Amino acid sequence: MNKMKNFKRRFSLSVPRIEENEFTEQINQLNIQHTQALTPDSLTLPSLHPEASPSPVSPEPATPGAQSPSQLQYRSKAPHRRFSMEDVSKRMSLPMDIRLPPEFLKKLQMEREMESENNSPPCKPLSRMSRRASLSDIGFGKLETYVKLGKLGEGTYATVFKGRSKLTENLVALKEIRLEHEEGAPCTAIREVSLLKNLKHANIVTLHDIIHTERSLTLVFEYLDSDLKQYLDNCGNLMSMNNVKIFMFQLLRGLSYCHKRKILHRDLKPQNLLINDKGELKLADFGLARAKSVPTKTYSNEVVTLWYRPPEVLLGTTEYSTPIDMWGVGCILFEMATGRPMFPGSSVKEELHLVFRIIGTPKEDSWPGISNNDEFRSYMFPEYRPQPLINHVPRLDTEGINMLTALLLYDTRTRVSAEASLRHPYFLSLGENIHSLADTSSVFSLREIKLQKDPGHRSSVFQPPGRGKNRRQSIF
């Protein structure tokens, strides 16, 4: 129990910023009503925005024949400005479409009036305790804030439900992790929370809320309709090459954001790439992710699902960095372009054998130091020559083959990075504007970026939520 209390103190809630929206309109209505109740056409309440706060009101100067004091009109020295939520955003990050309870709005209005009376700074930062209390007043961190609509799947440690938030009326995914009193929260859950709360990107799944009870730890995620594996299944494993390129760019965009922050995902696979009905792809399941520290530490080699695991990890290395993720990106590119996994091995030895048969058995020139690897020598693989990748992925153009080759290099020092991949000639057809997007902006905010109908398109590309035994098995 103490472990969970420490965990709860350790990770504070972090959700997207709020802008001018329905919440602002609710506050504006309160302002108008309050203003009219005082002096209908004469008095302007100070704004919460520090720069928009008008000076204290003052009477008109007396002049000969002036009206009596009871008839004096008051005015603000600063013009009336629309209420801004910028200061509230500084105090508490809130979802853009949040619907705040009336009780909280009244409390916020009263606090604002007290600040005005006491001439307190309107943008005084909230303490951690005050912020947590305010979020609790709104409804965050409470199970009753969310309605379960059905089970999406169940695993050894967690059950995932489709749900709805009473605060926003939006669908959410509720990942309910069972807690053992002796062991506390699983390390994978702690990693997932600690990393996701600091990752705000259009191509990374958003963690909205954390709910802790004695029996469970529930992570509230944004809800997405499908994943890349389901997408492939529902388009008959025959994707439009235009769509392959758009999904590939989104994957690299989210991964580059992680790598810049020295975060390794370590479990890239189609089941961990979620897709919504707009075609937005988002990285999910950071349970195996790690923050890459400096200097280099050693890590477990039991990471990354076997089919997408790079050869250096298959051969036992525990010292690795961002290139570990890039091999998996190459395997995913191959799978999107062909509709089948590239290296579907059932054991480490078979996986290496499949890799060497296509990429070629590594030698010192392609993988410096491989001849000294005891595990590699113990397998005694035949000396396979590398095969032209175009023979295996005929639908990829020349630039696509070039990128796939750069992703599947044995030498991690020369394997292409996520950031460099985004500037690869393979993506030239997407235009230059796609490189200027803000981190939180979708690629589909650009008019020129559109998905096409897949050649293997069925009645619906996106499978109805919750159908199938393998629904979201990856996020357990």
UniProtKB/TrEMBL annotation:
Q: What class of enzyme is it?
A: transferase
User: Which UniProt keywords are given for this protein, alphabetically ordered?
Assistant: ATP-binding, Kinase, Nucleotide-binding, Phosphoprotein, Serine/threonine-protein kinase, Transferase
Question: Which residue stretches belong to region Disordered?
Answer: 41-88, 455-476
Domain annotation Protein kinase: ranges? 146-427
Q: Where is the composition biased (Polar residues)?
A: 65-74
Q: A Gene Ontology molecular-function term?
A: cyclin-dependent protein serine/threonine kinase activity
Q: Which Pfam families match?
A: Pkinase
Among Gene3D superfamilies, the record links this protein to: Phosphorylase Kinase, domain 1, Transferase(Phosphotransferase) domain 1
Catalyzed chemical reaction(s): L-seryl-[protein] + ATP = O-phospho-L-seryl-[protein] + ADP + H(+); L-threonyl-[protein] + ATP = O-phospho-L-threonyl-[protein] + ADP + H(+)
Q: Supply the EC number(s).
A: 2.7.11.22
> SUPFAM superfamilies this protein is in?
Protein kinase-like (PK-like)
Which annotated residues bind ATP? Answer: 175
Q: SMART domains recorded for this chain? A: S_TKc
GO CC annotation, single: cytoplasm
Highest taxon in the source lineage = Eukaryota
Output the InterPro entries linked to this UniProt entry.
CDK, Kinase-like_dom_sf, Prot_kinase_dom, Protein_kinase_ATP_BS, Ser/Thr_kinase_AS
Q: Which family does it belong to?
A: Belongs to the protein kinase superfamily. CMGC Ser/Thr protein kinase family. CDC2/CDKX subfamily.
Full protein name: cyclin-dependent kinase
Recall the taxonomic lineage recorded for the source organism: Eukaryota, Metazoa, Chordata, Craniata, Vertebrata
